[in-house]
Design goal:
The protein is an alpha/beta fold and 121 residues long. The chain has four helices and four strands, in the order ββαβαβαα. It has a four-stranded mixed beta sheet. A hairpin with a 3-residue loop joins β1 and β2. Belongs to the anti-sigma-factor antagonist family.
Length: 121
């Protein structure tokens, strides 16, 4: 299945609805969308990922979520994981990363769009 991303953003808050599979074939689309959002919305302080229509998440999808967390935390944005279906809840529980993904970011300064970021996507 494909991944459909639907973004609703204001200056300080954004909701990204994730519909479909978050896997090897689609995770890069998620990370690229978040990277673009961070570049285009410098006043953003909260990013809500809405998983109500997520149908599947594999290890690459989970890795993509960790990359999103790294990028949002670096610029002081709080990440929220909303409407987590049972299959996502299980993988987050087994891996023990839910608290890490949703913890408050420690960095409060924003990086410029031209500054490098480790990782791919």
């Amino acid at each position: 299945m494909n991944l459909i991303l639907d973004l609703d953003a204001t200056a300080r808050s954004a909701t990204l609805r994730i519909d479909g599979d978050l896997d090897f074939a689609t995770t890069r689309e998620l990370t690229a969308t978040v990277t673009e959002l961070l570049r285009d919305q410098p006043a953003l302080r909260h990013l809500h990922l809405d998983f109500a229509d997520l149908t599947f998440c594999d290890s690459v999808g989970l890795s993509g979520l960790l990359l999103v967390r790294r990028r949002t935390a670096r610029v002081g944005i709080q990440l929220h994981l909303a409407n987590r279906p049972g299959h996502l809840e299980r993988i987050l529980d087994v891996t023990g990363i839910l608290e890490h993904l949703t913890s408050r970011p420690e960095v409060t300064t924003r990086r410029g769009p031209g500054q490098a970021d480790e990782g791919t996507g």
